[in-house]
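Protein entry
_____________
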Amino acid sequence: MHQLLTITWDQPLGLDLGFLTLRYYSLLFAGGFFAGYFVISKIWKREQNPEKWLDSLVTYMVLATVIGARLGHVFFYEWAYYKEHPAKIFAVWEGGLASHGAAVAIIIALIIYSKKVTQKSPLWILDRIVIVVALAAMFIRIGNMMNSEIYGMPANSSAETVFLNPARESILGAFDDRITEVDFEETGETLATDSLTYPVYKMTLAFVSQYKPEAAKDFTERYIAAQLNNKKIDDRNVIVVAGTQAIVVEGATAPTIAIQVLGVPRYPTQIYEAAAYLIIFLILFYLYWHTGFGQRNGFLFGAFLVLLFGFRFFIEYLKANQVDFEATMNLNMGQWLSIPLVLAGLYFMFAAKTKSTDAKNS
């Protein structure tokens, strides 16, 4: 595809307040719930539902989303790791959430909620809650963008994005006893190969003060390139230019080395997904507020499953694999998990009944 815009994405993961860092992902995750609460409150007010139902609904939704998304990631994507480290299952702050797991948990939680709180058909609350779930999903995908995660495959696209923070985290995680800071600077240059055109960056590494400049230079040339280049292209975000020599930065307060690297351009699939989920929210909201489809128990729930997971199936073709075993699959895990949800959605759409009919048959 023709390049129109190369976005260098090198944002901090959060707001540093000194005594703590507020991660943007956490803020956006919470923002999704607040926005959803505002919308569902409007629905509650319109239908004159009891306020206590809404308070209970928030509790069920928060617990189901967090627990389900976490367990979905654990069992669907990285069970081989977590069965050996079961205590890590609870370390949600380290990352690892799966939307398919959240979807299943939310459905189960709302069935329980319907029986214990509203005594209405589970489809009644599912039809309403999916409207706000689509909106919350938009916030979460923007949070993924801020976290530089769940990005697309390497590609030169019309809005390609280079995610630099994963490379920084990789270096600091491997050499935190030697390197204290990693910075990238755009050079305005590119390097074209048979498959991709890469933007060129100057990467500078600040070493601990005990290192002598020449030792830091030697360490950079021998080990940093291996750290960044030891994976296949699909798994990399930065590549050290072959044959590039490390240069000692003069006048730095600590031993600082500069080297040329290539940024791997990728599809910004988080933005594609966020835009799609916003559109799905608007469609569902319109169907509920302005058409008779909102009165058919199960129709909006089914439409949500078809639209969201149908889109998820196709966007997965542009996304990088989240775990290594997906490389051997014809369809990745996200696609396999989307298929039954789309089929279930089609069933609920075609089986939807009006409230009046549902009442007669109850």
